[in-house]
Amino acid sequence: MSKLVILKFADGSFEQGFGVSLQIGEECDRPATEITGKLPPCPEIPLYYSHWQSSYRRLGNGYRLDAEKVQITNVSMTQDCLNTSHILRARFNTWLRSEEFRPLREKWLERLMPSDEVRVILQAENSQLQRLPWHLWDLLERYPKAEIALSSPSYERIQKPRIPNKLVNILAIVGSSQGIDTKADQELLQRCKNAEVCFLVEPERKQLTDHLWEKNWDILFFAGHSSSQGKDGSGRIYLNKTDSLSISELKYALKKAIERGLQLAIFNSCDGLGLAQELADLQIPQMIIMREPVPDRVAQEFLKYFIGSFAGGESLYQSVRQARERLQGLEDRFPCATWLPVICQNPAQPPSTWEGLTRARKLVSPSSPLFNKRGFQVALFSSLMMTALVCGVRFLGLLQSVELQAFDQMMRSRPAEGPDPRLLLVTIDDADLAVQRHNREELKGTSLSDKSLVQLLLKLQQYQPRAIGLDIYRDFSAEQPDLISLLQHTDNLIGVCKGSDTTESTKGIASPPEIPKERLGFSDFIHDPDGVVRRHLLFMSQEAASLCSTPYALSAQLAFRYLLPLGIQPKFTSQKNLQLGSTVLPRLSSHASGYQSIDANGGQLLLNYRSTKKIAEQVTLTQLLSGPINPNAIKDRIVLIGVAAKGDFPDYWATPYGNQLDAQMPGVIVQAHLVSQILSAVLDGRPLLRVWSLWVELFWIWSWAGVGGVLAWRLSSLSSLVLAISLTAGVLYLFCFVLLIWGIWVPFVPSALSFIGTIGGITIQNSKFKIQNSKLIRENI
């Protein structure tokens, strides 16, 4: 199993010590473990390294050092080099076994098995830390498939997709070869399978930059003299006998090559840490360098072993480790040869394989056809499954409560329409009841005495209202002759009764005996399970035992009489919908948003409350009977008489505008909304609330699931996805709100759930897909 270990060194020094954090996890996944610790001060470590470095460099051995310092003789100081190397190794491991560092060491041993293939990345800013022989760490040597790489703490991924080559394209720069043999390097590269090698032998500067710009290179190889110079240790390569370049002088050409897909740079030359530091700033994925001056023979043998292993199918890290360890056979002549090769890694980039260089982007590029095809399939499948799930939950009735709450919220948010000028409300409040009792008028269990009713009807008739709706139950006979005559002969007066209620086992409330059936309307409201009135019942078939025999609602009867002088009479369509003029009042469908069962017995509409704080002009009974009257306030209007008292005769109903007791609406005002809805639809073209067909609603819900699928498919950044979700959810709400104003109630809650649910489902699937396929992807890069 492949593991990734990241060892991060915080700011510090050998004099003060270093803060260290250790991260361990699966390759291509987030770290599963992280622990912090410390390495104590150890100022002698750099001195031990300096002693070893001095004895090593005194050996000579025909290093591929810069052309001005080539040594061609070997001083017999092998034993001194070996002695200093043993001391450095011992002191280095003693430091790493310090008590402060033990928790990290124990966590490593706990989480990693010796059989694991381990890729270790050491992130440190301190150049002296990077130069230490980390491959000699006794803990690392327990793992035969582990290799360490150096990294800068600052890095980023190259986002531009790489165009794959049919063959591995290698740009081989053979620089100044004064005193060394570079032909062996050329011959080794020429034998690479599935590779196309372009050699630039001792090129001029312009020739090199032109080649870097003009082609997509996979590997950049340099053989020749190089060195790190100055206090900052900047790297320099020698192109020919006269020209040398720093990495900064090749910055733009190298940056372009990296953007176009350069994956690996191999500097088979001396003292490459300076080159690596500058190339890391250009975000190159991987480099292989020599940490110290490298003998000619060692450089050739390393290249031979590495290319053979890498081109043969091994991973980059395993190829470097195998090639490095095989150099041990040369250490009798070239001490510490196994110390020299080192990998420098950009942690944001995956390690390469030889085969993957020609097809990596085909596997992982978000713009590739394979990725797009799979992403589209996941988005489509997820949207369909989420739509089916949401609709199934909806049809079971589990979303009814939240759908109705969303409907109420939108109803309350609509712009004001103003009062309906065709209506006048005469209300009886607690003060009116007190006045009647003070005058010793008999109420007979109702809110309006016979005496007050006679006065009210006579006064209203003087001003010629078009219709009068008496929204007060009178299931008893009148005693005064004047009242009996008024009730019998006032042709524009509509009385009320109540139909039988099977839920309460009642036969209803009878109508006033004096009023004929054709001038009666039922006052029944339909409330939803939460007690809120959202539906308008126009007509219904009364039960045989009902005390109320009229088929039409009070609101319908009042509207009929208002419209009759205009030549508009009610009739029924073939679908049994009520039609007034050119306006058809469609019955509520059983699949309407928020409803799972609609009683087919009767004509129900969604009640489109008039958006206003004051549905019509309103006066109290006492004000009307005792005060002056504006004739225009009554003439040709519908006058609704009803109770607004909260004491003895409460008649209050929960509506979308409030379901708490103190926010409920008097029944007479609800009746005014019902009448206004009919008249406004017929005369003003005000929209009635409708719902789409079942299939259109299903398509609407699936469409928003599809929108969520596209967002989750195309947006990989969490912040971008969250922003897109917020904006899209706002747009969805705005669409539903505007459509409601236009008279169409569409399912907001199911659409929002399908939208969010699809995004969540795809995000989870994408996370699993990335984890499962990241190893394959990395193996082919």
Averaged pLDDT: 88
Structural class: alpha/beta
Cα separation of the termini: 19 Å
Individual helix count: 22
Low-confidence stretches: 65-73, 360-371, 771-781
Relative helix content? 25-40%
Instruction: Compute the CA-based radius of gyration.
Output: 45 Å
Strand order across the largest sheet = 3-2-1-4-5-14-13-12-8-6-7
* Large-scale geometry: rod-shaped
The main pleated sheet reads as:
11 strands, mixed
How many domains comprise the coordinates? 4
Structure description:
- This protein has 781 residues and is of the alpha/beta class.
- The chain has 4 domains: 2-151, Nucleotidyltransferase, domain 5, CATH 3.30.420; 168-358, Rossmann fold (3-Layer(aba) Sandwich); 371-398 and 692-779; 402-684, no CATH class.
- It is 38% helix and 18% strand.
- It contains 22 helices and 28 strands.
- The strands form 6 sheets. An 11-stranded mixed β-sheet has the order 3-2-1-4-5-14-13-12-8-6-7, with helices on both faces. A 6-stranded parallel β-sheet has the order 18-17-16-26-15-25.
- The longest helix is centred in the last third of the chain and has 32 residues, at 748-779.
Structure summarized in a few sentences:
The chain is α/β, with parallel strands linked by helices. It is built from 22 helices and 28 strands.
